[in-house]
Structures are given as structure tokens and as C-alpha cells.
Structure of PWP2 protein:
Amino acid sequence: QVKVWNTSSSFCFVTFTEHTSGVTAVTFTSNGYVILSASLDGTVRAFDLHRYRNFRTFTSPRPSQFSCLAVDSSGEIVSAGSQDSFEIFIWSMQSGRLLDVLSGHEGPISCLSFNPVKCVLASASWDKTVKLWDMLDSWRTKETLIMNSDVLVVAFRPDGQELAVAALNGQITFWDHENAAQTGSIEGRHDLQMGRKELDKITAKQAAKGKSFTTLCYSADGQSILAGGLSKFVCIYNVKEQILMKKFEISCNFSLDAMEVCDHSSQVFSFPLPAPKTLVLVDHERLVNHFSTSLLGDMSYRHFKPEIRVTCLRFSPTGRSWAATTTEGLLIYSLDSGLIFDPFDLDVDVTPSNIRKTLHQKEYTMAIIMAFKLNEKKLIQEVIEAVPSNEVDVVCSSLPDLYVEKVLEFLASAFEISSHLEFYLIWAHKLLMLHGQKLKTR
């Protein structure tokens, strides 16, 4: 299935079910009105977001399992890579006709990426190469970049001047693709901090040697790059300085596999013996073999534990938010506080006495938030009218976006019944001046 979500409401508003096997890649066209998806069923499908229908289906001459997908900046050229025939298929979006089949790789195609400025397609493969194909020169190989390990993902910088490549050895390299010259590299394996899986016979440190980044995405300005893979962490690097800027932990759910870092090769129990200052370490696996499961462990413990991983990362066009598809689901991180869900549920601290106490301490913003959580109109009016007129500007600037609309709604109703018209006009003016642009985009 292909699901399309509204990022403001967090609801899925359409689901496409035409694929008959697993979907391996999805992408938007540049105009945002068409979604393309590649699948192991041997088809690439184009979906119209106006009429919510599958209006184009692309297939190969011979049945192939498609592992990756890319569309050029004009939205007219569609490409998909095969994981069984090691070929790249090129179609026309307008006619649906197969234009060319590109061969030359000796391993499964792991990733495709079009240069956003020039007519160049980059293809990554498990054969340790990245090939650059020239669209204007009959799709001939323009350059072949040799890597030290299997290549998992490639991504062009938004200005098209730089190519980022992530390989199986955990390294991210940056290339000037015009001159086939490497301009920098990031050793990211240690930043992944892969946890030890439940059935692993080796330590997390040893297991990390086989871990790598499987998805990359440049920020809108090209100064930063997001990287994620077989780990519970998403890393954001500064491209110029090649340093880690921030690391996001996407989950704290320990019912998933590879969440915990253990130094010992197996889980260990410890218990004191009657003799003083004596401690015995018992191997968990041998213990389970010798004792009944009724004596050890929780019977509700899940037998199958999905492994935590990040499968895809994408920045928004504005660069102020990014999305990640993970074992936990679809996650969105944003700099805009308006996207944060803050339920108006009560807790033991939200009481009229505490609200008045907060107001007495001149913590006006917190008092307003607490009053709206309690949602008693007389108390809301009491709190707002207690704010000095010279403090309104400061309170409005510190008010979370989630409560701006609620304050405006209250002001609109208060204009009809209140005698403090000038005071409420000051509130409305300050709120609209500070938050009007954000309210307009909703």
C-alpha cells in the first residue's frame, strides 16, 4: 500500500492499494501533484493527487523486482533500478513508453538520484561503483566512481554541485562529480551506536562493524545532511566541516530489537550467595535451557522483536522539518511549534487556586495556558484582564502557537460583551502582528 498523510492533522487521507507486493520506494514529482511508487511486483505506478487514481503503470520487458526509484526535476523522466537483472529502466511520464534500458552494473541497483540542475542520473550498486549517466548523450556512462565497499545510497545537493555517497563500511563520502574527485568524507559508523540484537552472539561493538547508513538527504540550503540506517539514531552532519551537529534518538521502545547496548556476549543475571562478598554470574542462555519457562520470564513477552531501523529520510522543501520512516512508524521533526500536539487534558496541577497562584507570581503566559486547559470562561477572562497592558507584547510573543487561535477566539467573543474594548484591541493587534504570518499559512 501507498499511504498519503496530511502533516498538519497527522491523518492519512488516501491509500492506494494497486500494488500486489512490497513497495520499495516512493517519490513526489517536483510539482507535488503526482506520487510515484516502485514495487517488487515489477511495476512502477503513478498516482494523481487530484483525482486519487493510478493513471500510469510502467513495466519492464522482462519481469523485474524494482528496488529504487527516481524522477527528474521536470517530472517527465522516470527511472527505476532492478535488484535481480542489475538494469536501470527509463520511461516517459507523458506517454508511459519505455525509453531505454541501462546496463553496466554487476550487482543489484541500490539507489538512483537525478541531478536537480543538470541532465545527469547517478546510480549506486552493490558492485562498489557509482555510475553517472548523461541524459543528453543517449544515456551513455559519463563517469564511474569506484568505492571501497558496496554502495547503498546516493544523493545530490540541491544545487547539483555535489554528490553524497554512503557505503556499507559506514562511511559517507562527498564528490565533485564533474571532475570525479572526492572532496570529503565522514566516518559515521561510531555515530550509529548500533545496539546488540537479542540473538547476537557478539557484542554491540563487534556488531556495529556491519552497520551503515542506508538513507541520506541534504537540507534545503545544502549545508547539512541527514543520515540514518540500521540504528535507533538519526544523525545530522555539517557538510563543510564534516562534523556531527546533532543526533536524534527515534525510539525508547525496548520491545524492539537492537535497542540496548551490551558489552557481554550474552545477557547476564547476578545474585548474591550466602557466603559474604561473593557474586556469581550466570549465563542467561544456559539458564533458560535448564529451567522451566514457567519459572523464568514473562509469558506476555513477544517472541518476534522487529529490529529498530530508519528506512528513509526526507527534508521538507522549506528545510524547517524532516520526516523519517522507521520501525516505529512515520515520524516528523519540526522547528515549528505549531506542529506539536499538546492535548488540553487536565492534570492534578491545573486548578483554579494554582492558576491564581501562578498569576500572582506574574507568570502570565503559564497562567493563560493553564486557564485554557481548565477551559472555564470566567477564569480565562480573569487571567487575561489581569495582564498589564505593557506586558501584553511579551506575553503574546511567548505564547505557544497552539494557544494563539484559542486566545483569538476568546477575544472575538469578548468584544461583544466586554467594556474593555481598547485593552482587547491591544491583545488582538499584538497577536496578529506576531503570529499573523503563521496563521495565514494554516
About this structure: The first strand starts at residue 2 and ends at 6.
